[in-house]
Amino acid sequence: MFECVVAEDEELLRTSLLLQLGEVWPGLRIVAECEDGASALEAIAEHKPDVAFLDIRMPGLTGIEVAAALSEVSPRTQVVFVTAYDQYAIDAFEQGAVDYLLKPVARDRLQATVQRLQARVAAGRPDPATLEALLQHLAKRPAEPEAAPPLAWITANSGRETRLIMLDEVAYFRADSKYTVVVTAEGEALLRTPLKELLEALDPRQFRQVHRSTIVNLKAVASVVRDDSGKGTLRLKGRSETLPVSVPFMALFKGM
């Protein structure tokens, strides 16, 4: 039986895709349903599925960033990108052997995609050069205007005090139940915003998720060490503790 991970942050679209997959590919087993890039990457690393449907734009890691990490965490996984209308991306997909689906997903298009996937899965490991070329092409896409500028500062509670904290002062964020702990050189404070929501507002060039429950400020990282098991450890500037990096997220530090 073929196995699959579906990653789509819009619940209605995710549910619709899952229902259609059940109809056109009855033998497919969905091993994980994910609503953000980090959980998708962890699920793929855990299950090593035959296929991954990845929304291009997700909170935290994008589908493109997740796909770029697959060569290390699950090289045999076939990728299908799910995207809203984007001619630049579609032109890139049409040049290669990587499938894409437009939102909302049309049944006939999904049926054709499934037939190609079944053939590719049966043939074995995908061509890494094809996927790598596509990802490089997509990375060169024209810059898009941002809906809002990234956050520059936040307010967080420390006891009875409400502190204004500049983001450059933050070493890392740590999930704590429904809230988030903000860690700086001066100590800790509590932010009443879940980690997932916070990640959407942060500048992805400066803040990177390294664990399901941790976002680190890259400016605060002194070094990255990988152990024999593939896990990593971050040493920080101005903090004595170290931060674990789970195996799937180590692929995101290849350039460091």
Automatic annotation (TrEMBL):
Residues 154-256 form the HTH LytTR-type domain. It holds the Pfam family LytTR. It comes from the Bacteria. Signal peptide: none annotated. The modification 4-aspartylphosphate is found at D55. The keyword Phosphoprotein applies. InterPro entries: CheY-like_superfamily (IPR011006), LytR-like (IPR046947), LytTR_DNA-bd_dom (IPR007492), Sig_transdc_resp-reg_receiver (IPR001789). Residues 3-118 form the Response regulatory domain. Keywords: Phosphoprotein, Two-component regulatory system. This is LytR/AlgR family response regulator transcription factor. It comes from Pseudoxanthomonas kaohsiungensis.
